[in-house]
Design brief:
Blueprint (H helix, E strand, L loop, with lengths): L1 H10 L9 H14 L12 H8 L3 H13 L3 E4 L3 E4 L8 E7 L4 H14 L3 E7 L4 H11 L5 E4 L7 H5 L7 E5 L9 E6 L1 H10 L1 H4 L4 E5 L8 H13 L4 E4 L11 E5 L2 H13 L9 E5 L3 H5 L5 E4 L2 H14 L4 E5 L1 E3 L5
Parallel strand pairs: 3-4, 3-5, 5-6, 6-7, 7-13, 8-9, 8-10, 10-11, 11-12
Antiparallel strand pairs: 1-2, 12-14
Pfam families: GntR (PF00392)
Protein name: GntR family transcriptional regulator
GO molecular function, one term: DNA-binding transcription factor activity
């Protein structure tokens, strides 16, 4: 009964002269949803069934189904066909956003992205926490279900074939660059030279202290390019530098510069400096990566080097809305404040 009613909704639009066959099929399915002929979870006729019942070309039917998938109204399930994903026929696009985690700077990116794409777009957000197993299972779960994909990948060779499963015109890589085999769009950070430039700009200030301590954890989400830049800097500028795996609570000492990428470590360092009565910028130096509003305020300001995550979010949203290919590399810039 449902299928015959659906076919009737499509056929009745034959008399609408402004509709192409592709538009007739899309609008017929939307009308069936609006009239509750179809509801969420219902399976749609296969392409072959559609050809038999309404006589449209296979390419026309496939294109109409793809448009409805892009809008998030239906979804494709491997070997099971097309299903109704939502009864909200007003939405124009369904977007998947896959990020590392919801840290403060990534929240800035998300809010900027969300505000820019508008209300008529369904946005689903996922996190992989730099865990490859989580990343892989998430990729396998989301493919074929969205009209656009914005992905912050794990920068390992194993991630490349996973990401290459997506149509390149529907994919945007953000944050870390991946060397994909096909042409793709990206808005990513440049770490190596811009990190080195930040250290060089701070060189005279760093040399006022006895030691430059960098907390860097191998096999983490931290970019190795920053580590390479640190090592190059302390060699080129003859700075007494040391790399430690992590900050040990209570180990803070005066006359040292502490540099961390992780916010949790930064908060611990600031807490210990307060407990020991050490003033950042005077008794010790503190440098952080990835700026946010809190770092501008606390302890009279924390010196950082960072990209503009709000701008990255806006640019990513512009790609989703326009689908205009983009290849953009954002350089980290030094933001000097009182801590160093």
């Amino acid at each position: 009964m449902k299928l015959s009613q659906l076919f009737n909704e499509i056929k009745v639009l034959e008399d609408v002269s402004t509709f192409s066959k592709h538009e007739q099929l899309v609008q017929g399915i939307i009308n069936a949803l609006n009239q509750k002929i179809l509801v969420r979870g219902d399976i749609l006729p296969s392409v072959n069934q559609m050809i038999k019942e309404i006589g449209f070309a296979r390419e026309t039917i496939s294109r109409a189904y793809k448009e409805l998938v892009n809008r998030g109204i239906i979804e494709s399930k491997n070997r099971k066909g097309y299903f109704v994903a939502t009864e909200d026929t007003e939405q124009h696009l369904r977007v998947c956003l896959l990020l590392y985690a919801f840290d403060t700077f990534q929240e800035t990116f998300y809010q900027s992205f969300r505000n820019k794409i508008g209300e008529n777009i369904q946005l689903d957000i996922f996190f992989h926490h730099n865990n490859f197993s989580v990343f892989e299972s998430t990729i396998n779960n989301i493919k074929g279900k969205y009209g656009m994909y914005v992905i912050a990948p794990i920068d390992v060779p194993e991630a490349i074939p996973l990401v290459e499963q997506f149509p390149m015109n529907k994919l945007l890589i953000v944050d870390r660059k991946l060397d994909l085999n096909e042409e793709h769009s990206y808005i990513v950070q440049e770490f190596k030279q811009s990190s080195y430039n930040a250290f060089v700009e701070l060189a005279d200030r760093i040399k006022e202290f006895d030691q430059f301590v960098f907390f860097f954890k191998q096999q983490s989400a931290e970019p190795n390019d920053v580590l390479d830049s640190f090592q190059r800097f302390i060699k080129d500028y003859k700075v007494n530098g040391i790399i430690k795996n992590k900050y040990e609570s209570g180990s803070i000492e005066s006359n040292k510069v502490y540099f961390t990428i992780h916010n949790l470590e930064l908060w611990e360092i600031l807490k210990d400096s307060k407990l020991k009565g050490l003033k950042p910028g005077k008794d010790l130096g503190i440098l952080s990566h990835n700026d946010d509003n809190v770092k501008e305020i606390i302890f009279d300001g924390i010196t950082t080097f960072s990209i503009d995550f709000e701008k990255m979010g806006e640019m990513a949203a512009e790609f989703v809305l326009s689908r205009k290919p983009i290849k953009h590399i954002m350089k980290n810039k030094l933001i000097r404040r009182n801590s160093l």
